[in-house]
Design goal:
This protein has about 450 residues and is of the alpha+beta class. Helices cover about 45% and strands about 20% of the residues. The protein has three domains: about 190 residues, Orthogonal Bundle (Triger factor/SurA peptide-binding fold); about 100 residues, Roll (Chitinase A, domain 3), CATH 3.10.50; about 100 residues, Chitinase A, domain 3, CATH 3.10.50.40. It contains 15 helices and twelve strands. The strands form three sheets. Strands 1-12-2-3 form a four-stranded mixed β-sheet. The chain has a four-stranded antiparallel β-sheet with strand order 5-4-7-6, with helices on both faces. A four-stranded antiparallel β-sheet has the order 9-8-11-10. Helix 2 packs across helix 3. The longest helix is centred in the N-terminal third of the chain and has 29 residues. The radius of gyration is 29 Å and the shape is elongated.
Length: about 450
């Protein structure tokens, strides 16, 4: 079991941090899709060292987290999330900073243990960290040197940022390397997900970004609700949603700035569904308490669902008059069936039928299934995509049709590959959380 002691209140750390942070950090404006909030040089640079004597903030299995470490991480959180340090927000910044530092210490301890036991290297080296920093900087239209310079100018040392990056990529690499090859996303899971998405396509669709505050991680439902309200206040004052999500959200979508994409009713907790129905596009929700924590939802766009199914069709046809005799129909049927073995899919349909006398082939384009004749509707419904239907008799002749693609109007369904990748990432994220939770349960963690 975890041994968590509290030798004394952390109020002293927060108070000390206030004296260091209070006047140092300028608001950081950013586009919603930026990986990190950045801004120009501040009007007042913060000192890099706290104005109080350095002491111990926490001990994680004999590994010390100093008050200097804590204040530095609080600065980094404030800068990269765009949250303004204040009397109200400092306790939340302190909690999040301490939680992340404790998690990183546990991660590094586990990684070093695995390295020693298996005589392998897992922890990212300086070159890998530099490459990731350059990637972050590039997405903000600057160089890595410029990015670190901005952080340093606002009081967050480069090593603080580098430590966070190193922990993140090392742990993700370890989890993927150890568990990724064992994960198997079955085709039944993919099909079930696609079927569910197709079934929900008739419901209203919401394009959302989310922040999820895990009540278990922050110390209970009341603290989670209080923290979420403070984040909402900061977001309303201009803190970039994507930056806040990356630093504070416990959802797997945090890595993408909280972007959950298009969702339908039933994909999120019932409390969130109710809030989505009330929100207008461009609105930010109030904190939404649920069983496991608190959500903050930003509704980016909203669209009506639709039951209309659109199919892209190609056909092979043999012209035949409406009053053709049974013998003529039989000859036409033999002719049209003779080309079936030539066709393996939509891509080669026209080319492989071209040159066969008396047979035509062509692209019918995209059409609503409900707008087709009953015979064509029946063929489209009973024939798997990419295969030729049974012959269809019309007044114009005999036809074989092939469905090249089908989709719900109003909602672009993901491909099977996209669904598989999403399910894989979600399972890896759950494994990562479980591993970290287990490390916490057996750790000795003392906060001071």
């Amino acid at each position: 079991m975890s041994l968590i002691k509290s030798a004394r209140s952390v109020t002293g750390v927060v108070t000390a941090a206030a004296s260091v942070l209070g006047l140092a950090l300028a608001p950081m404006a950013s586009a919603q899709d930026m990986r990190m909030a950045t801004a120009g040089p501040p009007t007042t640079a913060a000192p890099l060292t706290p104005t109080v004597a350095e002491s111990v903030a926490a001990i994680v299995n004999d590994d010390i987290i100093s008050t200097y470490d804590l204040v530095q991480r609080m600065r980094l959180l404030a800068i990269t999330s765009g949250i303004q340090p204040s009397e109200e927000t400092l306790p939340q910044l302190q909690r999040e900073a301490l939680r992340s530092l404790i998690d990183e210490r546990l991660q590094f301890q586990e990684l070093r243990r695995v390295e020693k036991e298996n005589k392998i290297e897992i922890i990212a080296d300086d070159k890998e960290v530099d490459a990731e920093i350059e990637d972050v900087a590039r997405s903000n239209n600057m160089t890595g040197e410029q990015l670190l310079g901005q952080l340093s100018a606002q009081g967050a040392g480069a090593e603080t940022f580098r430590d966070q990056i190193r922990a993140e990529i090392s742990w993700q690499g370890y989890i993927r390397g150890r568990f990724g090859s064992r994960l198997r996303i079955g085709q039944d899971q993919v099909k079930a997900t696609l079927d569910r998405l197709a079934a929900s396509a008739s419901k209203p669709q919401y394009q959302v970004s989310e922040v999820f505050i895990d009540a278990n991680s922050v110390g209970g439902a009341d603290i989670a609700l209080q923290g979420a309200q403070q984040l909402v206040d900061q977001l309303q004052q201009g803190a970039p949603f994507a930056a806040v999500a990356r630093q504070f959200s416990a959802s797997p979508t945090a890595a993408s700035g909280g972007d959950a994409g298009w969702i339908s009713s039933g994909e999120m907790p019932a409390e969130v569904d109710i809030a989505l129905e009330e929100l207008r596009a461009g609105q930010l929700s109030r904190p939404i308490p649920t069983r496991d924590g608190v959500y903050i939802i930003y509704l980016r766009e909203k669209r009506a669902g639709s039951n209309v199914v659109l199919v892209s069709l190609k056909q092979i046809a043999v012209p035949l008059p409406a009053d053709a005799t049974p013998d003529q129909v039989a000859v036409a049927q033999t002719l049209i069936e003779s080309v079936r073995p030539r066709v393996t899919g939509c891509a080669d349909l026209e080319a492989n039928v071209a040159g066969v006398e008396g047979v035509m082939a062509g692209d019918l384009g995209e059409a609503e299934v409900s707008g087709l004749t009953e015979a064509f509707q029946a063929a489209v419904s009973s024939t798997p995509d990419g295969q030729l239907s049974q012959p269809i008799r019309t007044q114009a002749g005999l036809h074989l049709v092939m469905v090249c693609s089908r989709r719900q109007s109003g909602a672009q369904l993901p491909t099977a590959e996209q669904v598989e990748s999403r399910l894989f990432s979600q399972q890896l994220s759950m494994i990562s959380k479980r591993q970290l939770r287990d490390l916490r349960n057996v750790a000795t963690i003392e906060t001071r």
